[in-house]
Write a structure and sequence with these properties.
This protein is mainly α and about 150 residues long. The protein has one domain. It has six helices and no strands.
């Protein structure tokens, strides 16, 4: 599969793509992904340490909740920004009426497609699924099989 930027520039040459800043994930978004992954681990580890140390269980809970708060606040702000831009450009109405799109519309939709193909989201979904399944298995083992 040939990956490309929004304007079909091969990924290796995204630096010359006019949508490079839209397609490229910011350092802040990678940092907040890391915060979200740590929060995911922390929340799932609470049940593992609760019988060992109430201090560490509470610490993990606070780390997890704070991390989720930061991560989902960031994701909410990003989604709201996209929704405002969709409304500003009247993209939904144009698509519903099969109206012609202008260059700005196409640039925005191209940037949106880049964001939808984000590796960060795929990493996040996989990590949440994997750690949830692992926590479930460990919980069943500790509660029912041990």
């Amino acid at each position: 599969m040939n990956l490309s930027c929004a304007n079909n520039t091969p990924i290796g040459r995204c630096k010359t793509c006019n949508l490079n800043t839209e397609c490229r994930d910011s350092a802040a978004s990678w940092f907040l992904l890391f915060v979200g992954l740590i929060a995911t681990i922390a929340i799932r580890a609470v049940n593992l340490v609760i019988d060992i140390s109430s201090f560490w269980a509470k610490a993990l809970w606070y780390i997890g909740i704070t991390g989720f708060l930061l991560y989902f606040l960031y994701k909410f702000r990003q989604d709201r920004r996209l929704i405002r831009k969709i409304e500003e450009l009247k993209i939904s109405a144009k698509l519903a009426k099969s109206d012609k799109l202008n260059d700005t519309d196409y640039q925005f939709l191209s940037a949106l497609m880049c964001k939808l193909r984000s590796r960060k989201d795929a990493i996040n979904y996989f990590f949440i699924f994997f750690t949830s399944a692992l926590a479930l298995l460990l919980g069943i083992y500790n509660d029912l099989l041990k």
